[in-house]
Amino acid sequence: MHTPVTIIGAGLGGLTLARVLHVHGIPVTVYEAEESPSARTQGGMLDIHDYNGQLALQAAGLMDEFHAIVLEGRQALRVIDRDGSVLLDQADDGTGGRPEVQRGELRRILLDSLPAGTVRWGHKVTRTRALGEGRHEVTFAGGGAVDTGLLVGADGAWSRVRPLLTSTVPEYAGTSSVDVYLYDADTRHPVAAKTVGGGSMIAPAPGREIFAHRESGDTLHIFVLLAKPQDWFAVIDFTDATAAGARIAAEFDGWAPELTALITDGDSTPVLRPHFTLPTGHRWDRVPGVTLVGDAAHLAVPNGEGANLAMLDGAELGKALAAHPGDIEAALTEYEQAMFPRSAEAATLDGGEIIPLDSEDNTAHGLINMVTGDGR
Questions:
Q1: Where does the chain bind NADPH (predicted)?
Q2: Is pTM, for the whole model, over 0.70?
Q3: Which of 50, 106, 151, 353 has a CB 3.0–4.6 Å from the CB of 290, allowing a cystine?
Q4: How many other CB atoms sit within 10 Å of the CB of residue 327?
Q5: In contact, 62 and 184? CB cutoff 8 Å
Q6: 208 is in an annotated binding site
Q7: Cα(161)–Cα(138) distance, integer angstroms
Q8: Over residues 51-55, mean pLDDT
Q9: How far apart are CA 262 and CA 210, in angstroms?
């Protein structure tokens, strides 16, 4: 006999947990605030690592589906100095351990693997409270509530489940990113397409960085990272794409024009994404009947590990519950004791997706050492 599991949040971590539970015959329901799977765009590219994200997909029995959505050639990496000189041009030979997929496609295969009705859309959580003896109540906007003996918060940075376990809240990390898209780049933005190449491009410097992904087809997704206080961004009108792009590009004065054009020539309205983080090594004392996965548990500055860790959290928790069908607390203890150090270690890694911006050692040459293994 298994206690039904209630998951809050239908992101990658929550859906991976739901899938692994389904594989093991454990009843599960996922409650998601969004109205439908297509309520919003599901972000850009993700590199799924062979040491965490792919292990989660193996546990979910979805490796064939995963391989079918991999975008070939996207593990190529180019590092460019601020003067435009290419310092590293690493081709994708098909042997790398971090194949790239579109986040939306990955979420789709997870959703498709679950029985109809597993995810309850349009359920925004307004309150959670302990009922005693390991049970918790979740209340939803617009009325309705659920009483559960096993509650999992997979609801991200501003989790409504986390306060059941800890009073710690995320704090601004001192960096933010601004992202834009360039569409039909090979024909409409040929210089940008050539600069980025076939996979990822990084142009790093202390306190600032330009990062680009070639997504499906010839769409380029550009991320500009700056180490600035939130007040600095607050005075920029991001609804004025031209003015916002020019203000951000001004922080790269003196850089090669083909790099600053990645900022100013965007085809979409710039989107500001402040980075928030929980303390590295964040943990809590065991509370009966509730736990967290993904950003709800260990929000960190983006470094390429977040989605992978969330999926591995979900898979490992699902496996622990399956291994202890009569003892929820043993399963949750086993999961958390492994998750805490795993997430703390990952928070200190330079995953190659977004590089720490607060050190003079973070130069393009230092980055080459990191991506080639000399700086690990």
A1: 40
A2: yes
A3: 151
A4: 12
A5: no
A6: no
A7: 9
A8: 96
A9: 8
Cα dihedral sign, 279-282-287-292: positive
Inform me whether the pLDDT recorded for 173 exceeds 50. Answer: yes
Cα separation, 354 vs 177, in Å, equals 10
Cα–Cα nearest to 349, from 78, 102, 49: 49
Domain architecture of the chain: domains with CATH: 5-74+98-169+278-347 (3.50.50.60), 171-277 (3.30.9.30)
47 is in an annotated binding site: yes
Q: Is 186 annotated among the ligand-binding residues?
A: no
Residue 295 labelled as part of a binding site: yes
Q: What is the pLDDT of residues 219-245, one digit of tens each?
A: 999 999 999 999 999 999 999 999 999
Q: What stretch of H or E contains 138?
A: strand 135-140
Residue 15: exposed, middle, or buried by beta-carbon count in 10 A (0-12, 13-18, 19+)?
buried
β-pairing verdict for 220-226 and 208-214: antiparallel
Helix (H, G, I), strand (E, B), or coil: what is residue 19? helix
